[in-house]
Structures are given as C-alpha cells and as structure tokens.
Amino acid sequence: MGFVISVAGKGGVGKTTIAALIIRELCGEDKPVLAVDADPNYNLGEALGLPVTSTIGAIREELMKTKAELPAGVSKHQLVEYQIRLALQEEDCFDLLTMGRQEGPGCYCYINSVLRSFIDAMVSKYDYIVIDNEAGLEHLSRRTTVGSDLLLIVSDTNPVSIKAAGRIARLADDMELKIRRKVLVLNQCEAPPSDQHFKLAGYDFHAAYHIRSDKSIQNLSRDSAPISNLNENTPAIEDIRHVLLPELKSH
Fold first, then answer.
1. Which residue stretches of the chain have pLDDT < 50?
2. Is this model's pTM higher than 0.90 or not?
3. CATH code of the domain containing 188
4. Which of 138, 155, 86, 83 is nearest to 114 (CA)?
C-alpha cells in the first residue's frame, strides 16, 4: 500500500492548489503517484495541466443505463473494472482518476462495491496517492476510497474556516475513519499557526503548518496555467516542502 495523503477543508480555502503542489513535489521523487480528484466540482486536472476526459461518475451513470445489456461472456464485475481503467488518465509522473458527480437516483450498491475493491487494489501499485476531497469529508465517509496515512485539513486565516477545520477533524474521529495523522494547514498565512488558531479550531492536531501567500500562484490561476509552471523557489513550493518532509519521514 502506498502512502495516502488526503486534502480536505472548507470550500474556497485552496485545497486543490495545495493538492496540486503536493503532487508536483512528489513527482520529483521519480516514484509513481496517483492523483484522485474526489470533488464533484473537479478542478485538480486543470491545476495539473491535464484536461479531464472521463470521470467515474459519468461511467457509473452509463453502467446504470446499460447494466442489462452486457456483451456475451462479460460479467458486470469485468465491465466495471474495464470502464474504470478507461477513466484513468496517465501522465509521465502521475496518473489521474477523477471521481466526478455523485450518484443519481437508483441503487448503486453493486457498482460502488466493485469500485471500492478495484480502487483499493489499484492504489497498492503506487508509492503515493493524493486525494483532493470535496468540502468536508463526505467522500471518505462513503468509503469510495481507502483511508489515509495523512489528512491535511486546509484553512485560511478566517475564523470561520479555522472552526470548520476543527469540525472536520472531529467528524473524522466520530466516523472512525482510518487516518494515522491529522494536521492543520493554514493557507495564505505569513507566520506559523499560533495558540489562538488552535483555540479557534478546538482540536488537538498532530501538527500544524502554514503556506504563505504567493503572487506567482495567483498569476497562474488568473492565466489558467498549471502548477508545473511554478518556479522552484516560490514561497508556496518552499512551504509545501516544509509540510511534506517531516510528515513523510514519520511514515
């Protein structure tokens, strides 16, 4: 099993940018990386410079429509696995799996069961798996993907966002999710987290880090350019390294 990093947090705090920065850094280790975009409003592919061509959600909807019309000699299990493989987009240093929309009406129990078992088997082939979650922890709670070695709960410095980060951490505990370490990441913050931040969150995180504001990232976002275009020595890249180094060493 590879090292699984999940990125969660309130909407609009920069989860996808941080997930993309992490993937960019891990690619430098020349080890296989699986990027999973678990947000229905998927943007991870765009941040990585990879247009999304297929999603698990679209495949799941198509399978629901055609499940009674299987080709001769093809089981439902084989068909689901084949379709999921088609959704996997391969790049030189990472592969991308985009989950897409949630389920529509009807029972998706069988398809979701096959999906879980296939993805669990697939992630064992990667050294790193980075999951960009939707706002909150709904994706992990549905167990569509594996648990995590590291859960990065992202917040900006807004007290509302920091309180939401604490709620997400407590929700993970309440749901008894298999998460080894939960850490707080304050995005666009110029100094390390303080006691006041921890008090607002109301949760005893394993660690806390900060990512400084970075004009170069803002410029990339404005120009719809991928994270790979960033200069090596930008503040955000340096800060992401300060997050990853101790956490990967603790594994």
1. 143-145
2. no
3. 3.40.50.300
4. 83
